[in-house]
Structure formats: structure tokens, C-alpha cells
Amino acid sequence: MAFEESTHVIIRMATIMREKAACVIFGAPREIPTDVLPTYADVMKAYIHTRQQLTTKDNKYPPFAEVSEKVCVEVELVWEKASLPTVTHGRVIETLRPYNEKYKKILKPYKARKDNGNYKQQLEQFREDAD
């Protein structure tokens, strides 16, 4: 019986950790898929994943420039693999910046408005637009 209880506690802790890591808009963070062209949702999942990896021991997120540099390089590699013409690296980063700002702006009031119907509709619209 003690083994079953400890297993349940470990499973519950793992679930809690995954829930903290998952984004309420895009879901679980992950790396950029290399077999298909990435959507905004894929890029944002990769951004969140990279940001979590680069988070310091005192739980401080790295600056946008550091995270976006790594993510945009990955996106450019997928585009290159697909033989797509690309813009400059700086332009790729500048395309991600406003989208990231929009994401932060819509996510900021989440705790206070998560039960509001209009806010839920905004989240769903943002999620659909990302795909």
C-alpha cells in the first residue's frame, strides 16, 4: 500500500510540473518541428520551451533578444531545408517581436479574466490565428 501511495504522489507531482510548464494558449512547449513549416503556434511553443531552458537558477527569464536569437535560427533552418527564400535574420526576429508582445498582452490578465466569456473568446481567436 505504501508503494501505491508513493507512486500516486510522484505521478501527481509530475502532472503538476507539466501543468506549470504548459501555456494556457498554446499548450506544452516543444522544439520547432523540422518536418513541416512552423506556424506561429509552433514558434511560440519553441519560444516558451527555449525560455524555460535558458531560465536561470533564481527563476529569472532571459531577455527576449537571447531567446528569440535561438528560436529564429531554428526557424531559418527549417525554411532553408524547405528551400524557401528568407529575409535577413534581423527581420525574422523583428517579425517575432510584435507577436510575442501581443501574446504577453493577451496573457497578462489571464488569472483575473479566465472565466470571462469575452476573454475566453479572445484567447480562442488568438489560438486559431496562431495555427
Radius of gyration: 17 Å
Estimate what percentage of residues fall within beta strands: under 5%
Uncertain regions: pLDDT < 50 for 5+ in a row?
Answer: 1-19
Question: Gap between N and C termini, in Å?
Answer: 46 Å
In total, the number of domains comes to: 1
Give the overall pLDDT as a whole number: 85
Biggest sheet descriptor: none
**Count of helical stretches:** 6
* Category by helix and strand content: mainly alpha
- Strand tally: 0
Helix share bin: 55-70%
**H/E element order:** HHHHHH
Envelope shape: globular
Write a concise keyword list for the protein shown above.
disordered N terminus; globular; mainly alpha; about 0% strand; single chain; about 130 residues
Could you describe the 3D structure shown?
With 131 residues, this protein is an all-alpha fold. The chain has one domain (2-130). It has six helices and no strands. It has helices spanning 2-21, 40-54, 64-81, 89-107, 110-113, 117-130. Helix 2 (40-54) crosses helix 3 (64-81) and helix 3 packs across helix 4. The model is unreliable at 1-19 (pLDDT under 50).
Break the fold down into its secondary structure elements and pairings.
Elements: H1 2-21, H2 40-54, H3 64-81, H4 89-107, H5 110-113, H6 117-130
Helix pairs in contact: 2-3, 3-4
